[in-house]
Amino acid sequence: MTLHVLPAGPIQTNAYLLTAPERGEAVLIDAPGNVWADVAPLLATEKCALRELWLTHGHWDHTQGAAEVVRATQARVRGHRADRALYETPEVMSAFLMPGLQLEAVMVDEWVEQGTRFAALGMDVEVRHVPGHCPGNVLFYLPAAQAAFVGDALFNGSIGRTDLPGGNFAQLENAIRTQIYALPDATAVYPGHGEPTTVGAEKEGNPYVRG
């Protein structure tokens, strides 16, 4: 598996393209605005078809490019039902959009939840529910790759905002401790914004939630 980190959109939200050229398949995690312009040439170069789009949560900066990606690829979309209104009803997020931005609805094909497991790119994937920043924030954990894609739950040295609708610091703190810090220390943590980190580094040094 090859990991491509693709910051995109007006606030440089991280999208992660996972490609497996030997299988001719790829998965995209989150779809900020205009990310398809970065994804399409990589798929062509590596001769991969985008099979799935995994959404960590429903905030606009992670979903603005989702409809375009789905139109271009017919990728299967996975997300958590707690953010259904955010995915399907763009008007809910309209008050938080930057001026001049447009947001299209995206339909989720398969709702995931705590403990959901499935296979992708020849690897096992585990879903963990990490609410507190957003009711439907989930992480996608790939044990074979020692990698967790956590959305906006946890950042390198920080945590996701809890002052937006549906946010709750106590809930986020608990989710980080029980769902992220419970992963092996060597697990790479790929956040929705900023640089990657590891579970061990955040348990030891994160000033908001200590392990």
Automatic annotation (TrEMBL):
- Which Gene Ontology MF annotations are present? hydrolase activity; metal ion binding
Q: What Pfam families does UniProt report for this protein, alphabetically?
A: Lactamase_B
Ordered alphabetically, the record's keywords are: Hydrolase, Metal-binding, Zinc
Please verify whether the record's keywords include Hydrolase. Answer: yes
Q: Establish whether keyword Zinc is in the entry.
A: yes
List, separated by semicolons, the cofactors it needs: Zn(2+)
**Stretches assigned to the Metallo-beta-lactamase domain:** 12-193
Q: Which PANTHER family match?
A: HYDROXYACYLGLUTATHIONE HYDROLASE GLOC
Name of the protein this chain belongs to: MBL fold metallo-hydrolase
Q: Which organism is it from?
A: Horticoccus luteus
- Source taxonomy lineage? Bacteria, Pseudomonadati, Verrucomicrobiota, Opitutia, Opitutales
